[in-house]
Design goal:
The structure is a homotrimer. Chain A is built from eleven helices and 19 strands. With about 425 residues, chain A is of the alpha+beta class. In chain A, the strands form four sheets. In chain A, strands 12, 13, 14, 15, 16, 17, 18 and 19 form an eight-stranded antiparallel β-sheet that branches. A four-stranded antiparallel β-sheet of chain A has the order 2-3-4-9, with no helix packed on it. In chain A, helix 5 packs antiparallel against helix 6. Chains A and C meet through loops of A and helix 8 and helix 9 of C.
């Protein structure tokens, strides 16, 4: 439960809002590279933290991200001509380069130097692994790209999808770090009832980690051990394993808007890293970037198919989920009664039903949080504290330490007697 | 004409608003039983007086009406699993019974007593004659169900329909007690012009009450005699009959949101009682429950067909009228010129065109009320007075006296010399 | 660039707003006569300067424009019966003539004189050349119809279209007086690049004014010479012609909402006058009336076709453009790269993309105006001054001088040495 004031502080992303300013100290994924497939291709509308922007790829292949409206008379540069290293407004032909400089102003007399006085907002962009990141903060504080493992891997090792969610970014993030909800929202009826048939089937189907899945399914009320780190919070989820052991699953929250998770997978594979970045389109909308990656060798065809399926169906040619509040996420009540816990197809749509169903900004004054919500409580507090610190002049140290984000998740079976040795586990998660 | 303040007071139904509090002292029809056809069937979204709710029928067949959002993290219980006498949230499996008690909380450790501390809003429901009523007021003041004649009749004697109207509930109610508008809104061109052909046709077509219809049609400017009663207001509408007699038609308004009307029917039948209840979905939307009933024997097939036709066509599988403001109620201007007064098919759509056409909350500061509006003036005053009394601590006595609502309407031909003997007529209307 | 306050003052058209009051001193085109094709035809909804109205043509053929809602209980008179020189409300039969007088009140007793006390708003209308004009200002100040040349011409000499634009009326007007934008928004790629092929083709295609088009195309940064007049502002646009001459194109702005333009036309014809009137539907919507006219003889079939094409495609049976923001004006990016400057078909849709793309009320505090915007600056100042004058009690003199609006546009080639002799050119433009 939060006060009204803290809920506002936590969720509002506009320029000048405390959380909006905190977010503006970090890089945000905004586009897939494939949305701007080649030099001088059509521009694309972008909305990020409530700002109306237009992205384009110039003749040299660089991505520009400009304020949508021309500084002259405010026509939309979305309709602009993308030509010769600049975007030219259709109304009077003024042209801007990716930095926002006005490089041509044909409607003014030849001798005029007015163009040199006009500049539009042009935010820096960086492109890597098929994703365009943008930075909307003070130029002098521009950080390095995040150090997350997948950034900079060779081509073919990374698979990224983008999907819109019609809810505030924190609702998505809270789902992403909430290991406990998988036992309900994403389960099947036999798994929820923990029938012996279910476990028999599991063992015959899975190669590697049937045991881990069994532990996961069997313990509906996991305990959370938390560790504040230089990148955010390391979350250890403890489930009963054997009589004398616990199964630990590690999730990382990277301040402000990313998480890395992993662990048990139904296909028996553990070689893929997985993460999510919750990019705030505006107060009520989120662009969810879902990333899977492999270190040793490129992703196989079937791994890529699994990644695509994992992120759910969209309206073709868009990033809009097919299953929405307007169609009740295509819930099948018959299947809900007998097959799956929700009757909703696809993990992604199950999350949307939970997260969008709260309203676009959930009223956290009405919550009743239990011990299973301790990770969420810790992350909210860290976000609110960082936003308040920034208001008082202290920059978030996480922005300046991308190396701290070089992390793995791990699955561990440990004797019950040992407890949670956060320092040791954090060391296991660090990549060199 | 009302002041801005009185119009606000009259129309706003939210919790804490004076009229919202008054309405919360009474039972409201919210669902047809057929919307929850069997135990453990899918839940249904309900909106009542601006509150977001979810209704479900539990394993024992009882109807529950809960706040829509789970008190844990505010996921929507609409997507919940309806199972074993409770509704289980899909996000973390918390389960509630029809009283709002949390009866299972599997995400918390086995020893936890947190469930006993969590309770969601669960409003009492009563089901009778195919209708689910709900009570949203203080538990200690929960009244009996209304005493209206049809409540409790044997199966087959009552026919109820539900339709949405996109206007404030008072606009509907004002139409319901406005006997005068039928001479215009619901008439035909020959009737409006009172041609001799029309009356010849009428006499040959009707068995019983051609005379009453004739009186009704002939007098476009009826007079209203009003009597304050213990249930609300008894409205006597006086029309000229013969040279020495008046035709009196009696309508009852039952505070706060019901009316019983009757009298002349084109099919010659007078055996059916008819009433309307205007259930406030929110400030701008009303669920209209239209009820017809027969005392002596079950409704016949043709009577049921007539009842269904009376309440107008809907989008199949919904309670949304087919004829809406967006399609101009399918007005046929050619028919309007020559056949019917409005060119709009169906009595219900005619009412919607009048009532929704005012805007969802009519600006009563701009009205010019005539003598034909005296019943409306009286009813508004009674509602405003009751709401103000409640603000000052006086509970509405009508909530505590369902017996006073056991009423019939009557049609009377009386000598002109006699005038309106309210006491005598009220006695005629009382049921024993 | 304007202050927030001046931008509000410039754009808001509601009753009581300074600009709303200024506009209410003038006649506004609201309907094509063809929207009310014959006596007693169906009424039509009208919205003008934010007021909800209903127009009808009575039995005598006169057009009435009433407040939409009946003064009795506020039912919509749009559904009213149009019969025997009045519009009758469907709810209780009250009937109004075109002046707003209640001429029948059948629901009140025969002896009542209540009807004589009830009057609804009925605005004066004038109909000419297929256009219905309305006046919403103080009755005692009702002016003559504007003196624009086409008003009062014989039938067949005038062609008028009406289209909706989803932007404030000033955005449209600013486009209408901005001669410079045609070199960009409405051009082709070869013309923009000024290729020799383009000019060769031009000369072989055009009969009369290939030279003028050549001058127009060749000079992207025209200069503006402005002259305040008794009707508004005369705008002279100067482009280089030959080494020793300038090409002058004259546009008139008629305070508050009209402009007359002309000059170069691709079809070689100069016999047509052309003008636009920007009629404010509300703060965010404009009805654009586009007028073409011929003095000497009726418009030919091909001239009428050209006028229709000029104003762009609409959804059949409506005045809604087919090309909208929702479909990105059907921009064709391939054509934009190679054929036309915008890739958007039709001059009208090109203007919409520029003017609607700014947002429905452009934020003029963020503009950067150049020397090519001097006409726009002058017109804004004149509008703001006239609105402020009116607030201080000085009526706009333009309303009282329709004769001053009898104007033509002219195209002139003048020696460079001569400069802009405003007095002489204004005299050339005056019609006798």
């Amino acid at each position: 439960m939060l006060s009204i004031e803290d809920n506002e502080l936590l969720t509002r992303v506009g320029r000048g809002k405390p959380m909006g300013e905190l977010l503006r100290r970090f890089w945000h994924p905004v586009l897939l590279s494939s949305e701007l497939p080649k030099p001088d291709c059509p521009p694309v509308r972008v909305r990020l933290m409530g700002e109306r922007l237009v992205a384009f790829r110039d003749t040299s292949g660089r991505v520009g991200l400009l304020a949508e409206r021309c500084p002259h008379r405010r026509a939309s540069l979305f309709f602009g001509r993308n030509e010769e290293n600049g975007l030219r407004c259709i109304y009077h032909g003024w042209k801007y380069d990716i930095d926002g400089r006005c490089v041509d102003m044909p409607s003014e007399p030849a001798g005029s130097n007015f163009a040199s006085k006009v500049r539009t907002t042009g935010y820096p962009c960086r492109e890597t692994n098929g994703v365009v990141f943008a930075y909307l903060g003070p130029p002098e504080l521009e950080p390095e790209l995040p150090g997350i493992e997948w950034i900079g891997l060779p081509e073919g090792h990374v698979y990224v999808t983008k999907r819109y969610e019609f809810a505030n970014w924190v609702q998505g993030l809270e789902g992403g770090i909430d290991s406990c909800h998988s036992n309900f929202l994403h389960t099947t009826v036999p798994a929820f009832r923990r029938t012996s048939d279910f476990f028999d089937g599991l063992r015959s189907r899975l190669q590697f980690d049937a045991k881990l899945v069994e532990y996961f399914i069997n313990d509906l009320s996991p305990r959370f051990c938390l560790r504040d780190t230089d990148y955010g919070v390391m979350i250890g989820t403890q489930r009963d394993a054997e009589a004398d052991s616990f199964y630990w699953r590690i999730t990382h929250w990277l301040l402000p808007h990313a998480n890395i998770f992993g662990g048990v997978r139904d296909d028996g594979s553990t070689r893929l890293g997985r993460g999510l970045i919750w990019s705030a389109v505006d107060d009520h909308t989120t662009a969810v970037f879902s990333v899977s990656w492999a270190l040793e060798s490129p992703l196989t065809e079937s791994e890529r198919d699994a990644c695509e399926a994992f992120s759910g169906a969209v309206v073709p040619g868009t990033f809009m989920p097919l299953q929405t509040m307007a169609n009740d996420y295509l819930i099948d009540r018959e299947r809900q009664a007998t097959e799956t816990f929700t009757g909703i197809e696809s993990l992604q749509a199950q999350d949307l039903a939970a997260q969008e169903g709260m309203g676009s900004i959930v009223d956290r004054t009405e919550e009743h949080l239990g011990s299973s919500d301790s990770a969420i409580i810790r992350v909210r507090r860290a976000l609110i504290r960082a936003a308040k610190d920034l208001m008082e002049g202290t920059e978030p140290p996480q922005a300046a330490s991308p190396a701290s984000q070089k992390l793995r998740t791990v699955d561990l079976i440990r004797p019950r007697a040992e407890g949670f040795d956060g320092e040791e586990i954090e060391a296991l998660c660090r990549l060199r």
